[in-house]
Design goal:
The protein is of the alpha/beta class. The chain is built from 7 helices and 8 strands. It has a single domain, classed as Rossmann fold. Helix 1 packs across helix 4. The radius of gyration is 16 Å and the shape is globular. InterPro entries: Methyltransf_25, SAM-dependent_MTases_sf.
Length: 208
């Protein structure tokens, strides 16, 4: 797994790396555009939404929301990616932060219409994901949604099949979503729907 130094070094070429994988329809970014479009279109159903983006990177998704009048807070652990995104969104509230530590103190009293995250939460292990998602749910306004677009699978055997097909490039230090297992872990806490958009990616819509 890349640490924040690695992501800083990767920042300038990150979008091109994603593009090559997405256009080739291969792990890890197959379905990337459709995943971002799905989240964008969901947020756009509400005017001037308060949005928190977890791991916004270079701002590919968040910039489009910003340009459409939504209020943006964001956290990312790469200072270089934050610099790139801040130029695109000068009035957005962007902070450097590692989600291993939950949310920063500056956001603890805030609530959002949407909390979005794309290709970030797989850096947390399964237990950490559930703990963090529970925290994020407490920061949603009534009727708000948590939208997670990531490397994700409906069932464990789909993940294992993808791993076997991509052993040379598979990152064993990343922890990908299995929708059935996440739903079971959050049962009784929230409603969790999974929209499979490629052989290795999709969007989870989580509502408290």
């Amino acid at each position: 797994m890349l640490n924040n130094t690695g992501f800083n070094l990767w920042a300038d070429n990150y979008d091109q790396t994603v593009k090559v994988s997405e256009e080739s329809n291969v792990y890890p970014f197959a379905g990337y555009k459709e995943i971002l479009n799905t989240i964008f279109n969901t947020v756009m159903n509400k005017k001037k939404a308060d949005v928190l983006d977890i791991g916004f990177g270079t701002g590919v998704l968040t910039t489009k929301l910003y340009e459409n009048g939504h209020q943006i807070d964001g956290i990312d652990f790469s200072s270089q990616m934050i610099s790139i995104a801040q130029v695109k969104m000068p009035a957005a509230n962007l902070m450097e932060w590692d989600i291993v530590n939950g949310l920063p103190a500056a956001l603890q009293e805030k609530k959002y219409d949407f909390i979005v995250s794309t290709y970030t939460l797989h850096h947390l292990n399964d237990e950490e994901k559930v703990t963090f998602i529970r925290e994020l749910l407490s920061h949603l306004k009534t009727g708000g949604q948590l939208l997670i677009g990531d490397i994700a699978f409906g069932k464990r055997d789909q993940l294992e099949n993808c791993r076997e097909a991509h052993l040379k490039h598979w990152d064993e230090e990343e922890f990908y979503f299995v929708a059935d297992e996440l739903k079971a872990a959050l049962d009784g806490v929230c409603k969790c729907d999974f929209h499979e958009l490629s052989h290795c990616g999709g969007v989870m819509v989580i509502t408290a």
